[in-house]
Specification:
Length: 176
């Protein structure tokens, strides 16, 4: 028989329930007003539309670098590979210069692009929506690149998981 959840802290219980949805892990980067590179680990990334090409991600209103992203006109979404746990942890922590000693390359527009990622999406801000305790940022994909070949970094139930490759699902053909 399943354990009865402890309802003494409904927010914590909701967080645990939501953590059952496995996600990929990204680091979203931008430039501060003074040109300093900034970034934060994000797992609330999703596609919105192919035409036009739109993606979104969410940022906590209490995030230390909230003001930087609140006014930034563009950002870069770096999709992390399984061997980039240290990078995820670095950008998830507060404090020190997250870019110190890290390999990255500026894009043509100057945005920090982290080396070794699976994909990159350079975005201009299309819209921002404040909902609850987060800011939802919708970006129009201006350019992207894919570097497949490594497994993705996956986050589930407050920990990282290793992906186990399986065969791609077969598509059914229409009769006739």
């Amino acid at each position: 028989m399943p354990a009865v959840p402890n309802r003494s802290d409904p927010t914590l219980e909701l967080r645990k329930a939501l953590g059952q949805f496995a996600t990929g892990v990204t680091v979203v980067t931008t430039l501060a007003a003074d040109g300093t590179p900034e970034g934060i680990t994000v797992n609330s990334f999703t596609s919105v539309s192919l035409e036009p090409p739109l993606v979104l991600w969410c940022l906590a209103l209490k995030a230390a670098i909230f003001d930087t992203f609140r006014v930034a006109s563009q950002h870069l979404i770096n999709v992390l590979a399984a061997d980039q746990v240290e990078i995820s942890n670095r950008f998830a922590s507060r404090g020190a210069n997250r870019f110190a000693g890290l390999k990255w390359t500026p894009t043509d527009t100057g945005l920090p692009r982290l080396d070794g990622c699976l994909a990159w999406f350079e975005c201009g801000i299309r819209s921002r929506y404040e909902e609850g305790d987060h800011l939802i940022l919708v970006g129009r994909v201006e350019s992207f690149e894919v570097a497949p070949g490594k497994p993705p970094l996956i986050f589930h139930d407050s920990r990282y998981l290793n992906a186990v490759p399986t065969a791609a699902p077969r598509r059914r053909r229409a009769a006739g």
